[in-house]
């Protein structure tokens, strides 16, 4: 898989360099540079075809739109991944805290219900297999 990405990266770098050179030719266009311009335009077309071939090999890759927003803002798209992981970790800790709280609440509830309704709680524990609260 990495080989496919390296291939795409190589074609994109060549394409970008070709566009840069094309911009230089166009910005200082002289009739004598028409041949060079035509050659660069043909290289651009070939480059787009090469990129399209690479794209077809990577059709099953999904990139979140937020990553493109990071790029548009001039930010490193790896920051998007880092921030996603940080948000997932924070959410995981939050959910773990809720689970721990609910577990403690259940234990306390069973304990208190056992004091108020001892017969019913004995039946409940027999059905659910819960150990008596300590």
From TrEMBL:
GO terms for molecular function: transcription coregulator activity. One of its GO terms (cellular component) is mediator complex. InterPro entries: Mediator_Med10. Its main location: nucleus. Keywords: Activator, Nucleus, Transcription, Transcription regulation. Component of the Mediator complex, a coactivator involved in the regulated transcription of nearly all RNA polymerase II-dependent genes. Mediator functions as a bridge to convey information from gene-specific regulatory proteins to the basal RNA polymerase II transcription machinery. Mediator is recruited to promoters by direct interactions with regulatory proteins and serves as a scaffold for the assembly of a functional preinitiation complex with RNA polymerase II and the general transcription factors. Component of the Mediator complex. Belongs to the Mediator complex subunit 10 family. This is Mediator of RNA polymerase II transcription subunit 10. It comes from Alosa alosa (allis shad).
């Amino acid at each position: 898989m990495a080989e496919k990405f390296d291939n795409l990266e190589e074609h994109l770098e060549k394409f970008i360099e070709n566009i840069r050179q094309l911009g230089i030719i166009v910005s200082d266009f002289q009739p004598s540079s028409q041949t060079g311009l035509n050659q660069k335009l043909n290289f651009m077309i070939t480059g787009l075809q090469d990129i399209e071939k690479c794209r077809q090999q990577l059709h099953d890759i999904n990139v979140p739109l937020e990553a493109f927003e990071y790029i548009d803002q001039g930010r490193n798209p790896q920051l998007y991944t880092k921030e996603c992981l940080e948000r997932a970790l924070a959410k995981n800790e939050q959910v773990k805290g809720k689970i721990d709280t609910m577990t403690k609440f259940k234990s306390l509830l069973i304990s208190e219900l056992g004091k108020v309704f001892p017969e019913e709680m004995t039946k409940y524990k027999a059905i659910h297999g819960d150990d008596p609260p300590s």
